[in-house]
Amino acid sequence: ANSNNTEYKTMNIASNARRASRCLSQAKNHASFANVQKSTQSRRCISTLPSCLLPQTHPTSVVLPRRHQSSSSAPPHNHIHETLQEKRHSILTHALKRVHDEGWTDDAIASGTLDAGLPPSYIGQAVSSTSVFGCADLVAFFMDECNNNLRKELNTLASVPVGSGDNTNDTAAKIYKALQLRLSMTLPYVSSNRWHEGMAIGALPQNAYRTTQQLDDMATVVLEYALGKGNANAAQRA
């Protein structure tokens, strides 16, 4: 039995050796062993070889080039945030035009979303706090816009030489001018009988803190225009 097994193994090795010789002769027609693998006939021969007869090569790790993500394919997080803020600003800006007819309500937000050319799915992304009295985010947005516009217009006035135009050195006159300018921004909503609703919404307990901050910001803008930035800070601390 042992003799038969030995003869069988010897014949098997001889057969494998002949098969390997045929495959390797084909490989000579190629520049390298890697090119042999591209030949369909050679691949079939090599696949039938025992692992002990195959060349012992170490696998080469293939380093694929890293794909650089462009801003168009995968925008960074801050860019996404800026885009959402821009859309929110557009929605609330259009919603303010609807306040005269629909009040400081979710209906005005919904109309503003459609007026901005956005799908209805964006309606809930523009606001976060509403109540039966109205939309606090819409009122707060209006207050912030008024303060921003006031700061821009007062900076323009401050750049005018003293004694020309509306610019003067009189502190009281400057404060009067700044407050008059700020209050004039609410006149369209006073005329449509909507501003008292906005003030009531801003005075609600859950909104009072934010409203106080906005009024403090308005006072800072006025004092900076009337007294100068350094003097305004000293006056507020006093």
If you had to describe this structure to a student in words, what would you say it looks like?
The protein has 238 residues and is mainly α. Helix content is 66%, strand content 2%. It is built from eleven helices and two strands. It has helices at 2-27, 33-36, 40-47, 77-102, 106-115, 136-158, 171-184, 187-191, 195-202, 205-227, 229-237, and strands at residues 130-131, 134-135. Helix 6 (136-158) packs parallel to helix 10 and helix 10 (205-227) crosses helix 11. It is elongated, with a radius of gyration of 39 Å. The mean pLDDT is 76.
In short:
The chain is mainly alpha-helical and 238 residues long. The protein contains eleven helices and two strands; from the N terminus they run H-H-H-H-H-E-E-H-H-H-H-H-H.
Rg computed from alpha carbons, rounded to a whole number of angstroms: 39 Å
Sheet-strand content, in percent, reads under 5%
| Portion of residues within helices | 55-70%
Please outline the major beta sheet: 2 strands, antiparallel
